[in-house]
Design goal:
Helix content: 40-55%
CATH class: Alpha Beta
Order of helices and strands: HHHHEEHEE
CATH topology: H-NOX domain
CATH architecture: Alpha-Beta Complex
Number of domains: 1
Radius of gyration: 17 Å
Mean pLDDT: 87
Low-confidence stretches: none
Largest sheet: 4 strands, antiparallel
Number of helices: 5
């Protein structure tokens, strides 16, 4: 089970993007009629099924098609992370965490530290499905099994756009610069895991 607050944020974010009628259409399509006009309470009670969270994401892809769903899911990931940072930082362990103004190298190191806090909190919610490491490319987050794309039979391209959006917004918050984030592997297209890479920025010019 996952916190009520996480599903609450997901639903209000989709409503902001799709509008009330658009969200209701998505909920009807996804077999989630019980959530129409009845959002979970905005608290940390563990009353929400992760299956429903997954159905919301996969329903958007199936209803809208991958091309149309991509920017919406990416935006929902960004908006969801913004909401957590601004209003509910304790949900994912970000309470009291602040970015530091320094050179890009130092800020990227700080991003790794903050992402570790976030990853550890997410493991507490979703289980041992996350692995975070750093290599020459940047920060690498592996998700296995991945609830973002679970249930998709096959895809020709990565589809965990919401996860990319959350990582993008976290990186933008810490680095304050344009940042490149891509999903380079995806279980839905037959890869062994889903992999999100936050690419290392170019060093400051001297």
């Amino acid at each position: 089970m996952i916190p009520n607050q996480l599903m609450h944020i997901a639903l209000i974010t989709f409503e902001e993007i799709l509008g009330k009628s658009g969200l209701n259409s998505l909920l009807n399509f996804s077999g989630m009629e019980a959530f129409i006009d009845t959002y979970p309470p905005n608290d940390l009670g563990l009353d929400q099924d992760l299956v429903d969270f997954n159905r919301l994401i996969i329903g958007a892809i199936e209803l809208l098609g991958q091309a149309a769903a991509r920017p919406i899911l990416f935006r929902s990931g960004r908006r969801g992370m913004q909401t957590i940072i601004e209003q509910f930082p304790d949900l994912l362990g970000l309470g009291g965490v602040t970015p530091e103004k320094a050179d890009r190298g130092a800020r990227f190191k700080r991003l790794g530290e903050i992402h570790r806090v976030l990853t550890d909190a997410s493991i507490g919610l979703f289980g041992e499905i996350y692995t975070l490491c750093e290599n020459k490319e940047g920060l690498v987050l592996d998700i296995d099994p991945c609830f973002w794309c679970h249930g998709v039979v096959s895809s020709s391209e990565p589809i965990c756009h919401t996860a990319v959006g959350t990582s993008y917004e976290l990186a933008r918050w810490v680095l304050g610069d344009p940042v490149t984030v891509r999903e380079t592997r995806c279980s839905a297209k037959g890869d062994e895991c889903c992999r999100i890479v936050i690419f290392r920025p170019e060093p400051d010019e001297r």
